[in-house]
Design brief:
The chain has one helix spanning 14-25; strands at residues 4-5, 8-11, 34-37, 41-42, 68-77, 80-89, 92-96, 99-106, 109-117, 120-124, 127-129, 132-133, 138-141, 151-152, 155-158, 169-171. The protein is built from 1 helix and 16 strands.
């Protein structure tokens, strides 16, 4: 049972964050594809290359997230993803025409083959506003193809659809 806050899914804790990811990743589309954080979220107290208690599956991992996500000035901490054969990894794996704002990623470890970023792994036509990735976030790409590694602090890869580029916008992101 999801509570709503101004028409958004209300996310108050790690369980609800994982629940929202499961809804989007399972394509259990509902009336709303929007979410808002109402608290700081701590998934794992500590993360490292050697592990963490809970692993993360990004929102929109193998199908795109095209909704709105408002961090409401809160942070997400302790995300852990370590699968060297996967791609599209961040808080969000793959976004298209999404609007993500007011969220910070802290104290996390993200390791995958390609398309890795703190906020979004792979995106198109996405707007990021007031997003931040702290210096205690570790992002590792394991692709053997040095010419095709797409990794970054904020986002890993911007892509286009067909022969047409889809603009993304960034405002006050660090």
């Amino acid at each position: 049972n999801w509570e709503q806050y101004d028409g958004y899914y209300a996310i108050r804790n790690a369980k609800e964050l994982y629940g929202f990811a499961e809804i989007i990743n399972g394509l259990q589309l509902t009336e709303y594809k929007e979410a808002v954080l109402l608290n700081d979220i701590v998934v794992n107290e500590t993360v490292s290359e050697s592990g963490a208690t809970y692993s993360w599956t990004p929102i929109g991992h193998h199908s795109d997230f095209s909704g709105e996500f408002d961090g409401n000035g809160h942070y997400i901490s302790g995300l852990y993803f370590n699968n060297t054969s996967e791609y599209q990894v961040g808080i969000f794996g793959w976004t298209s025409e999404a609007n993500i704002r007011n969220v910070t990623l802290k104290n996390s470890y993200l390791c995958a083959e390609n398309a890795i970023g703190g906020i979004v792994g792979r995106m198109s036509g996405t707007t990021l506003t007031n997003c931040k990735v702290d210096s205690d976030v570790t992002i590792v790409a394991t692709s053997a193809d040095e010419g095709a590694v797409n990794v970054g602090g904020m986002f890993g890869m911007h892509y286009y659809v067909g022969m047409q580029y889809s603009n993304s916008n960034f405002t006050n992101c660090t």
